[in-house]
Structure formats: C-alpha cells, structure tokens
UniProtKB/TrEMBL annotation:
SUPFAM superfamilies: P-loop containing nucleoside triphosphate hydrolases. Residues 19-242 form the ABC transporter domain. It comes from the Bacteria. The keyword ATP-binding applies. This is ABC transporter ATP-binding protein.
Amino acid sequence: MVAVEERSAISTPAAVEVAYLRGATKNYGAHRALDEVSLSLRAGEVVALLGPNGAGKTTAIKLLLGLLGPDAGEARVFGGNPRDAATRTRIGAMLQVARVPETLKVKEYLDLFRSYYPTPLPVEHVVRVAGLAGIEDRLFSQLSGGQKQRLLFALAICGDPDLVFLDEPTLGMDIESRHGLWQQVRDLASRGKTVLLTTHYLEEADSLANRIVVINKGTVIAEGTPAQIKSRVSGRTIKCVTSLDEDLLRRLPGVTSVEVKHGTTVVRSAEVEDNVRQMLALDTGLHSLEISSPALEDAFLALTKGE
Ligand SMILES: Nc1ncnc2c1ncn2[C@@H]1O[C@H](COP(=O)(O)OP(=O)(O)OP(=O)(O)O)[C@@H](O)[C@H]1O
C-alpha cells in the first residue's frame, strides 16, 4: 500500500481555525462520554474522527453543532457559540440518526432545507452531485437506505455551508455511491470548505482525510496525517515465495515475525530493504516479491487495543 501524504495545499497549520473543542467534557448521567477532548478544524481541511463504537465521535459532533452543551470546556464555531443563528447558517450536518418526517418528497426536503440558508446552491446542482436525479418525487419513506443517505448528504450541503459535519455518511451505501460521495467531499475541500467526518471505514478516512483524530473511550489517543497514524505501527511487510528457512529469516536484523502460509513467506520487519537484499542474495530463486506498508486498520487496532 502506498503511503498517503498531505493532500490539500489549502490546509496548512497557518490556515484559519474555523471550529474547535477545547478540553470538552460531556457526561450522560454517570457515564463520561468525552473527557477533556480538544479538537481543531481549519479552513479547507477534511478531518476524520475515527474510533470504535461508543468512543464519543457523535457526541463530539453534537457539541460542535450546539445540540449538546459541554459540562466542562468549550465548543466554538466561527468564533462564536455553535447555537448562534448566524453560525448555524454556515454549517451543514448529516447525522447518523437524522430525524426527518417521512412524509415529504425529496424535492420538498431540498426546498425546505435550502430555505434555511441565505445563499443556497441551485437545486439542480444539489440533485446532480448527491445522485438524486429521477427520485425527486419520491417520499422519504419510499427511499432505499443508500438513497436516504444521499438525500441527507444533499440536505447537509444544499445551503453551501462553510463547515460540514458528516456522521458516518456512507453507511449502507453501495461502492459506487460511496465513491461518488468521496468525490463530493474532495470537491468541498477544494472550494475551501471544512469537513469533519466520522467513519468506521478506515479506507474512507485514509482516502479522504488530511488529518485523522483517533478517539477511544472519550479521549483523543492519536492525531496526524493518515501516513503519520500508519507509522505508529512499526515495520513493513515482505511477502515472497522463498526456500529460505524460517529460523534464518527470524535472525535477520529488524525482523519481528515470520510466517509461512500456503507457500508464501510473510516477514514483518523494521528494515525491509536490507532484508530483501540479503534474501535475494541468499536465494536467487526467490520470486513473487511484495513489500507493503501497514494499513490504517493495523494502526487503528494497535492504537485502540487494550485501552
Ligand atoms: N443520550 C445518551 N444517554 C446516555 N448515554 C449516551 C447517550 N448518547 C451516547 N451515550 C453513550 O456515550 C458514549 C459515546 O457515544 P457516541 O454516540 O458519542 O459514540 P460514537 O463514537 O459515535 O459511537 P458509534 O461509532 O457507535 O456511533 C457511548 O458509551 C454511548 O452509549
């Protein structure tokens, strides 16, 4: 897998901070869902909030939307309180459990939500980018799960907001719809919009985010570019077909594990280039060589396991 580097020229540390949580704590009764979480969102960047079920991702978004108030710490959006009317017209949101009445048609929703914003996008544009063409007259209750998700995405962006929150936006979408939505997220960022998304699809975070914030049990446990997060899992993997003995491979410098599965040898090591040179010298018949970096999934599991 190829390491993914910083994607957006717009997103630099100097870019304007559009929203933040500072030391935000949120309790539900005796349960602490967020514990002194700090999170900063800058103009033009896509930030992925990653974490296992119940980590506190949705709660963090709700604080930034002003749907919940923090018990301690601060949530600020465009320099103000997220509940301010002026702030709300610059924000779009797609929540996991969106409460919308089932009795309106797709186009009625679009008209209604566009009316909340001072300078909404043209309805034809929204229909096209969200993949709603041909189903504008359907009732919400008649939509498939993936179509509902696409409508909710359309409602999040129809006001042309500067800051968009997407809580598991591609849940239940087929691959084509998912890739279509990814493209829309990239387009938003390229127009200087800021996107905070939560996802369980690590591939999605890897593919879209400039920055990933890993949250577990209400606490931020890692933050960085996808490449930086991946580098938290040390070593890379060599796969090949070789006659070299497993014990010999284990003794090579940097090697942390060796496995042979279905005739393929898998070596995990901190010094793959040196190891490959040595292996090729020792076994001229070595073939089917592949070197890979750890997937984001490995990093995520390593970061969250046992915490
Ligand atoms: N209204 C509520 N009342 C009580 N507990 C809640 C409430 N909402 C969330 N929680 C608890 O707070 C914790 C954080 O929930 P949250 O929905 O923020 O997690 P999440 O990271 O979004 O999870 P998921 O990936 O499963 O959606 C969980 O333990 C959850 O059970």
